[in-house]
Amino acid sequence: MQIEKEILALNAYDPQAAKPSDEQTRRAVERRLGTFGQGAVLFYREPIEAVSAEGVWIQGADGRRYLDVYNNVPSVGHCHPRVVEAIRQQVGRLNIHTRYLNAVVDDYAERLLATLPEAIGNLVLTCTGSEANDLALRVAQAATGGTGFIVSEMAYHGNTAAVTDISPSSRPGRPLAPHVRTVPAPDSYRKPDEHPGEVMAAAVMAAIKEMASKGIRFAGMIADTIFSSDGVHADPPGLLAPVIAAVHAQGGLFIADEVQPGFGRTGDALWGFQRHGIVPDIVTMGKPMGNGFPMGGMALRPDLLAAFNARDKYFNTFGGNPVAAAAGLAVLDVIREEGLIENARDVGRYLRDSLREIANRHLAIGEVRGAGLFIGLEFVTDRESKTPAPETASAMINGLRERGVLIGAAGAYGNTLKIRPPLCFRREHADTFVDHCDAVLGQIRG
Amino acid sequence: MQIEKEILALNAYDPQAAKPSDEQTRRAVERRLGTFGQGAVLFYREPIEAVSAEGVWIQGADGRRYLDVYNNVPSVGHCHPRVVEAIRQQVGRLNIHTRYLNAVVDDYAERLLATLPEAIGNLVLTCTGSEANDLALRVAQAATGGTGFIVSEMAYHGNTAAVTDISPSSRPGRPLAPHVRTVPAPDSYRKPDEHPGEVMAAAVMAAIKEMASKGIRFAGMIADTIFSSDGVHADPPGLLAPVIAAVHAQGGLFIADEVQPGFGRTGDALWGFQRHGIVPDIVTMGKPMGNGFPMGGMALRPDLLAAFNARDKYFNTFGGNPVAAAAGLAVLDVIREEGLIENARDVGRYLRDSLREIANRHLAIGEVRGAGLFIGLEFVTDRESKTPAPETASAMINGLRERGVLIGAAGAYGNTLKIRPPLCFRREHADTFVDHCDAVLGQIRG
């Protein structure tokens, strides 16, 4: 797990290393370090100063424009005019908490719940996915009387104290919290099991049993339904069906963390869990929900919210404010009207096919996988040993940056590119990306 | 503590009680209950549907406008044109995380840190005050090696799992978490000690000693520097000086929670802790920071951030985005250019004087206290026994609502009105408020 720190070191700017080559960036980096201090983390060996953005493009202060193949928050496109206009109108009209009634908020809540399975009938709006997951854990505890949670080995579920405890990828080199157990994520490349769902379900059962032997009662399992921080594992569709059955059989709840796969990214449907044909007990959401406007949420079965409310109250000052609701409504409109789920499916498939084509020439590519516009591109030193090659991923990240393409890495070994551009990414953008990948791979191995 | 639930029941809409009298509100309430379910909490026996707001006024769907004497989030005034314009411009230009450089973010970070004592040299931007406090606890734990925290008896520090543990007012009827101890807030009315700072310092020392006897190492004390949820206790200035000395003597950190008193509200200075002449180790902020745009932050000594970063990393996706930074900059500009700190001081004093004047006629008023535009108005059944009168507070809240004035309550007994209007509240608004208070009190007792 220690490797996570190395990944960061490989892909991020290192203040101890050489200073940026141009004067403006050098000054900007100094300003940032002067205020954010040790908390400052900047992408790339040579950081980028951004001044504006539109669609799939970010404009740098260096006069260059960068193709964004990484950012999943501005999911319907950077500064989408529809979302921008919705925010501009509402922010001048009313921005207040939910203890007064407001029709915009109710419109949004109804629209959002209508996209979810009928059993998931209530909604709590927060400001971030972290807040939503933090609350979901408390709901699961209240509803089950348990405290134990199961997550995947490299799970990331946010940044509060409680969700950091259930995020092994945020605790490199440290033992798991006592109430947390992990199960391996599916891995079509290194563990091509015939029945990965059954394998995971068995691991879940074993973890619950082991927990019980330590006197810890099982509360639930939380999973990012595309296992992004484990390296992007979407396949096979349906794999979570036996897993949720095991969770329910043991009296636990299944929390689908849709912060990454939600809002159309997987190209199958609006929600990542729909790829697996399951109905979670709780669904949490964040990042793309407002296309960058800070908002998150937890949708759940009404009986679970009632169980929580019997003991606790939850109120979020900014959560569900009308500006967030207006942004959220615009995002849902744009996804539907611009056919972004279909686009994610089409361009995603096209992009995976194109990457597999260049994989014929570039043996460093171990596997191309994913769903919709969430693709993992895994690098190895050779295809026989499948030895992870994080240095190739790092060289790709920094090489692509030099060529004006923004990308990042994920996975336990840091050797997998996390390809998740705004959903308005078109075939021509995919072509540009693949051409640059081809060129950088040629340089690395040349 | 069970009384907190009763306060809510007294002041909030009760779905089990009579339905709202007009058809539109009835439908709006039904919609809200249909999505938010048991999590729906609406102010007043007769809820209000808000459609727009400006300055100190909220426009209702019922065609009435309400004088806002309660909301401290739209602190420089509802929909302040300067803040609205800053958001409108930036949201169409760039809205991205802090792993790319951006000058607006650096401008804000520098401007904000310049308002704080020099020792507090670093900043971490979050989306909410809850996130900031959650992180501050982790920093204090990392820097001290301790886990124990001291808070005031009715403290409220936010809504994540970790900060709910240190928020006794959120846990009515439940024992404190094992790592938490409370000390009484100062109380000029019921405990008019000559030296409340020394009294609190002694209580802190005793709590640390008791903690140690249970094997719990002290990490720090966190306090809202105006003790709002304890009933608004600002006096005497300087009272926290012996307290922070005690905390430091025992190796702990002092976290000033400025979510309520910060950004000019107390009329003394930009920060509540400045009233007490202290330099905290960590300062957290939220609510008024972006005048409603979801943002929060933690400013701290660089050595503390370094201690945290040696073990943990923290990244907040939406935290410090350029739209939040633009909103934050506009808020700082407006506070200075419109002289809102001076206005809070002047109008606050005028309002307290006016309330004390009507207290000559209305014996239900036990005490008028506070600083700047954060005022506590405490009701009692009689002045001899000082028996708390939450029913009077509730009658005031609902009576004022009927007269078009918005207010709420706080404190252990729920008998104290929490008066904290937007900081652009003028003397004429104070007159209106006091006239209505006078009238409602006359009706209640009449």
UniProtKB/TrEMBL annotation, chains A, B:
GO MF entries: transaminase activity
Q: Establish whether keyword Acetylation is in the entry.
A: no
Q: What cofactors are annotated for this protein?
A: pyridoxal 5'-phosphate
InterPro entries, alphabetized: Aminotrans_3, Aminotrans_3_PPA_site, PyrdxlP-dep_Trfase, PyrdxlP-dep_Trfase_major, PyrdxlP-dep_Trfase_small
Q: Which SUPFAM superfamilies match?
A: PLP-dependent transferases
UniProt keyword Transferase, yes or no: yes
The record's family statement is: Belongs to the class-III pyridoxal-phosphate-dependent aminotransferase family.
Positions of the UniProt region annotated as Disordered: 168-194
User: Under what name is this protein listed?
Assistant: Aspartate aminotransferase family protein
* Entries under PROSITE patterns matching the protein: AA_TRANSFER_CLASS_3
Q: Which UniProt keywords apply?
A: Aminotransferase, Pyridoxal phosphate, Transferase
